[in-house]
Amino acid sequence: MPSLVSLPKNPLIGTVKVPGDKSVSHRSLMLSALAVGESRITGLLEGEDVLATAHAMRAMGATLNRVDDGEWVVNGVGVGGLMSPDDIIDMGNSGTSTRLLMGLIASHAITVTMTGDASLRSRPMGRVIDPLSEVGAVFKARDDKFLPLTVTGTDMPVPLDYTTPMASAQVKSAVLLAGLNTPGITTVREKVATRDHTERMLKSMGADITVQDEDGIRVIRLVGQPELCPVNLEVPGDISSAAFLLVAASIIPGSDVTLENVGLNPLRTGIIEALKAMGASISIHNERELGGEPVADVQVIAAPLKGVVNLEVDPSTMIDEFPVLFCAAAVASGVSRFTGLEELRVKESDRLAVMAAGLRANGIKVTELDDGIDIEGCGGFIPGGGTVQTHLDHRIAMSFAILGQMANKAVMVDDASPIQTSFPAFVRLMTGLGAGLDVLE
Ligand SMILES: O=C(O)C1=C[C@@H](OP(=O)(O)O)[C@@H](O)[C@H](O)C1
Ligand SMILES: C=C(OP(=O)(O)O)C(=O)O
């Protein structure tokens, strides 16, 4: 497996585009595959996770054709038109693909067997098996909660009124997608708002979906069995990928980077608020809307960061950005404390334990908490010299690639291959800006 070596080189200078948003890309393929007619998607993220979604939708009968870089044409089968695939579907490393697809399948009378890589096979699926079983789907899962699993959807789906037990857009979306081919109104209630790409895209495709605040609970109601209209959709840049550059350009002295066309969905922008709270110099330009999502150009100029202990940002608005934020905290001056992050333990890896181990291996003093982490910042360059175990987690790999740019000794990432799941151009783009990254095959 290819390892990655990161050592300081130059300030990051330039203007770049980050790849398409992974969450929006998944949904654009899934929903256009259920539309009646031809959809055209541009700016699609062509990372392994999204390609797994494309493979799954083809296997269930939709026609998806790649016509150019990031440009795909999808001919959908209509809501209710999915068919049983003739083989097991390998979902690779992608939790979003797996859980949202389970929702789609739950209200189609088809049978699908899914598996994934070692990381995905270790992640809990009970959080979607439980509500989808109430819809009427039948699951046969390893230990009742892990992949490989077989799901048999029902031809008599029940519309749920479901309150999500944790802040999860994947769980919310799985229940909503099950509601697509279910008569009646499917209701999902969220105590904590999570990314609303599903809601926005369904509305833009003609579904009758409403979102209300009822006594502090976000209530989403979807009328089942719509005819979804095909779309011409441009996918905005992924702020979760942009986050690596926001942190890198903040911590590497002399950097000045502009990121074009970044999706700034209000339920995804916590990383910008968090970095600003630490002293980052980030400005937003050219705000506009793209495919129903707010986007803008984001400029970041290097600035000294200070630790933060009472971050007043909702974790669900930056849940995937905590690994790289921890690296920013390692370079900042002073102590940082992050809590309320138990969900990080069930991502591609246990991101609290793996980040703590990687930071310690590179000379950073950390204390791992049940639901968070304390980090003693170095106020500049960190010792470095450690090898980080990524555990098949792309965000661990990229976070330590960034940290190595502020290390006295090289930071080694044991496996760079997971980066292909969400940001295939990461090394090329970072080195083009001035970073010192080398991939060793
Ligand atoms: O709905 C989505 O596209 C996602 C939701 C989040 O997961 P949870 O909903 O489980 O928090 C996030 O971690 C993931 O990268 C993408
Ligand atoms: C958790 C992530 O994705 P998924 O759940 O789709 O694997 C991520 O991209 O950080």
From TrEMBL:
Molecular function via GO: 3-phosphoshikimate 1-carboxyvinyltransferase activity
Q: Which Pfam families match?
A: EPSP_synthase
- Could you say which residues bind 3-phosphoshikimate here? 22-23, 27, 168, 170, 320, 347
Q: Has keyword Cytoplasm?
A: yes
Q: Identify the metabolic or biological route this protein is part of.
A: Metabolic intermediate biosynthesis; chorismate biosynthesis; chorismate from D-erythrose 4-phosphate and phosphoenolpyruvate: step 6/7
Where does this protein hold phosphoenolpyruvate?
Answer: 22, 95, 123, 170, 351, 395
Which UniProt keywords are listed?
A: Amino-acid biosynthesis, Aromatic amino acid biosynthesis, Cytoplasm, Transferase
Source domain of life = Bacteria
Annotated Enolpyruvate transferase domain residues:
9-428
* Classification via InterPro entries: Enolpyruvate_Tfrase_dom, Enolpyruvate_Tfrase_sf, EPSP_synthase, EPSP_synthase_CS, RNA3'P_cycl/enolpyr_Trfase_a/b
The listed locations are: Cytoplasm
The record's annotation in PROSITE patterns points to:
EPSP_SYNTHASE_1, EPSP_SYNTHASE_2
Q: Which reaction does it catalyse?
A: 3-phosphoshikimate + phosphoenolpyruvate = 5-O-(1-carboxyvinyl)-3-phosphoshikimate + phosphate
Q: Name the major location.
A: cytoplasm
What is the active site of this protein? Answer: 320 (proton acceptor)
Q: What is its EC number?
A: 2.5.1.19
* Family of this protein: Belongs to the EPSP synthase family.
Q: Which HAMAP family match?
A: EPSP_synth
Function noted in UniProt: Catalyzes the transfer of the enolpyruvyl moiety of phosphoenolpyruvate (PEP) to the 5-hydroxyl of shikimate-3-phosphate (S3P) to produce enolpyruvyl shikimate-3-phosphate and inorganic phosphate.
**What does the subunit section of this Swiss-Prot or TrEMBL entry state?**
Monomer.
Name of the protein in question: 3-phosphoshikimate 1-carboxyvinyltransferase
Q: Which organism is it from?
A: Kordiimonas pumila
